[in-house]
Amino acid sequence: MTKDNSIIEGDGNPVEATLSLETATTVSGAIQAIVEEFDVQPVLFVGSGLPRRYMGAPDWEGALKFALEAMGDKAQPYSYFAQKFGDDKVKIGTAIADMVFEWAWGSGKDRFDAALFEGGDSHIFIKTLIAEHLDAITPKTRNDFGEEHEEELAALRDIRPHAIITTNYDSMIELVFEGYEAIVGRGVLRYDLNSFGEIFHIHGMTSDPESLILTTSDYDNWHKQSRYFAAKLLTYFVEHPVFIFGYGLGDPNVRTLLQDIGRIAADETGLVGNVAQIVWHAELKGGPSQSEVVIDDEDDGRQYRLRVFNVTSLKEVFELLSARHELKQVNPALLRSLAARLMKLTRKDIPGGNVEVDYATLEKVVQDDKSLPAMLGLTFADTDNKTHPFTIGQVADELKLKGWNAVDKLIKGIKAETGVDLRASDNRYHERIKTGKKSATRKWSHESVDLFRNVMAGKEYKLRD
To answer: Architecture of 388-457 per CATH?
Structure first.
């Protein structure tokens, strides 16, 4: 849940403008084009729209009204606070939190655990009320969501995202993505992101009511740390396609986070090309459409642009993002365990001399190409992945460029000079490798890296057949 009132529909967005994409003329094609530039699963940025859609969770205003109702006739109506503070829901929330504090120490004392009165955050009482309410309405199992959105939730589950970032307090998303691990609040700053299957609750979670970002002091503290969060999550926003669901981007702290990401990941035009917002509408005249949202950077006056896809079917979008078949059966907890053990092995055990080496086994691995993969439970990559090993992001790394957008610019430059679009066919520089019935990824060869390096240096080059 966030301060933003908008749910899945795109109300309250800032500046919008029409957007045309050279590589795709349809919304589905444009989304697929973003996905194909990366050989990794997407990251989802999930707002309050999804729990409101799937389990009837309240928006920010609804949660504050629930807290007022809990106080009975002791509380002023919500309209009193709305008239006093206008549309500033952080100030409204803070004022209601102060009122709940006074009520808790008076006639409402029996409503709370005695431990909550022993120092700490004076706003813990409203946070506890809201956390308990969200826990009460959250389904206990996957089967408790009901049939209305059953197929849509199944398609969402099949995405198997690399990670989820959310400002929601509730645990609904953990039910959808079974086996993913919740990382709460400041725990994100201490967490190793070289893994898979995490859900980052950057505004806190109901399992720890004190962690909830709700009042003015909470938001002020979060704002001070937002750049640390942005730096910590930068790997996701640079190396993965990121799709935003359930936001209207009206939450000032979410916008601050995206500003910080824009400073690092935006191209020279201000476009953050691998981050896109999905906005669901019950109806759309003319069908699905593309637009842009512009986020102003108050610090340096720049503007950052995100692509916005207006759709009438979330299920179709989820299916476009669906994981390759072999990833659908992967156990996220097992992958995290393996990654953690590998990190410990390379960072601590080996340097510390704590590993006993079986040289006979190592010799066999050296002599037999199949031994190491068998040891690790892996299968060989196909020949296409051997000849074209790089994603476009990895090509950028090889060329020491800032992000895949810079490589995309080189590709378009070659097309302008020679008339040859390297991505239009499979060739010695590029291949479109199928990863499933409907999915594919674009890969690049070592020869393409050499080609791009020559182009960057201004040297003459000749495309080979």
So the answer is: Orthogonal Bundle (1.10)
